[in-house]
């Protein structure tokens, strides 16, 4: 209705309506001339066909533009709705532990410009790489692809805590193929992005858990790696088991029993601190955690072995 009313105003309503256009175009102080040279009042009155034809073309052009806008807006709405639908499917498959189906769904959108799709694809690629049946050659390809997807997600939306989180995870994975020097250098970048993810979303237990893993990793760094780190960097990354424990407990407070590995690492950290009683408490919980994924099964096995050692 709004389009038709605007279009109607462009068309001549009555005989002589062209005079109004002439008057609007007439410069101040002119006598009988309608704006530019050649637009004489007598010429307009004597031959209205070109003028009306021009108005008609203008009206049609305006109509085409308005139609284009409506179609474009509809296309954007449709595309947004489709993305939301794919995200819902992806999250359902992830929660169901359908790793391969999830990857097959998301790989169709590898050229997407949507950060939400891209970080989920990074996660799915990494999960496929972690499967025991994935060959070492395939794993390496998937790890680097995951990093590319995570990097693109971060470029598209720096305010996405998940993009920061998965970018840090993927950088860590790539470090296994880049050598000790690069791996230690990347540690600073990894920590920075985990901290940013926590800042953006303090209620995301996984980001907090991963910060705990960062601390645990550098707390148990072998002596030869520490020596290399000191040679390469004036202030090499370092941490303690106490600091790691703080993050693991914080993650558990935010979302109790959210992840079997957090339970396992609570047990392992207490073992490092020689507190066998609390270590056993958390290892029992890790062993009894429902196995939804292959990783959960591996954690159950490791927890059982550690408990046997106690």
Automatic annotation (TrEMBL):
<dbReference type="InterPro" id="IPR049039">
    <property type="entry name" value="RMD1-3_a_helical_rpt"/>
</dbReference>
<dbReference type="GO" id="GO:0005876">
    <property type="term" value="C:spindle microtubule"/>
</dbReference>
<dbReference type="InterPro" id="IPR011990">
    <property type="entry name" value="TPR-like_helical_dom_sf"/>
</dbReference>
<keyword id="KW-0963">Cytoplasm</keyword>
<comment type="similarity">
    <text>Belongs to the RMDN family.</text>
</comment>
<dbReference type="GO" id="GO:0005739">
    <property type="term" value="C:mitochondrion"/>
</dbReference>
<comment type="subunit">
    <text>Interacts with microtubules.</text>
</comment>
<dbReference type="GO" id="GO:0008017">
    <property type="term" value="F:microtubule binding"/>
</dbReference>
<keyword id="KW-0802">TPR repeat</keyword>
<protein>
    <recommendedName>
        <fullName>Regulator of microtubule dynamics protein 1</fullName>
    </recommendedName>
</protein>
<dbReference type="Pfam" id="PF21033">
    <property type="entry name" value="RMD1-3"/>
</dbReference>
<keyword id="KW-0206">Cytoskeleton</keyword>
<keyword id="KW-0677">Repeat</keyword>
<keyword id="KW-0493">Microtubule</keyword>
<dbReference type="GO" id="GO:0097431">
    <property type="term" value="C:mitotic spindle pole"/>
</dbReference>
């Amino acid at each position: 209705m709004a389009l038709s009313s605007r279009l109607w105003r462009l068309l001549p309503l009555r005989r002589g309506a062209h005079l109004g256009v002439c008057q609007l175009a007439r410069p101040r102080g002119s006598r009988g001339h309608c704006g530019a040279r050649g637009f004489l009042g007598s010429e307009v009155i004597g031959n209205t066909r070109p003028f009306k034809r021009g108005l008609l073309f203008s009206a049609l052009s305006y109509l085409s533009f308005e139609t284009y806008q409506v179609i474009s807006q509809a296309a954007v709405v449709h595309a947004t709705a489709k993305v939301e639908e794919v995200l819902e499917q992806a999250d359902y498959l992830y929660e169901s532990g359908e790793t391969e189906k999830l990857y097959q769904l998301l790989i169709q959108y590898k050229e997407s410009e949507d950060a939400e799709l891209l970080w989920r694809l990074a996660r799915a690629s990494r999960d496929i790489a972690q499967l025991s049946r994935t060959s070492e050659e395939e794993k390496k390809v998937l790890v680097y692809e995951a990093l590319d997807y995570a990097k693109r997600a971060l470029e598209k939306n720096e305010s996405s805590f998940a993009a920061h989180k998965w970018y840090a995870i993927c950088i860590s994975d790539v470090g296994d193929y880049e050598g000790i020097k690069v791996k230690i250098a990347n540690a600073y970048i990894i920590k920075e992005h985990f901290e940013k993810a926590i800042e953006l979303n303090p209620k995301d237990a996984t980001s907090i858990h991963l910060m705990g893993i960062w601390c645990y990793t550098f707390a148990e760094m072998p002596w030869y790696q520490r020596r290399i780190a000191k040679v390469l960097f004036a202030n090499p990354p370092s941490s303690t088991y106490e600091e790691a424990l703080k993050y693991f407990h914080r993650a558990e407070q935010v979302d109790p029993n959210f992840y079997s590995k957090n339970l396992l690492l609570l047990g392992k950290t207490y073992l490092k601190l020689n507190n066998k009683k609390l270590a056993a408490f958390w290892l029992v919980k890790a062993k009894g955690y429902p196995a939804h994924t292959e990783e959960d099964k591996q954690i159950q096995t490791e927890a059982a072995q550690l408990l046997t050692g106690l």
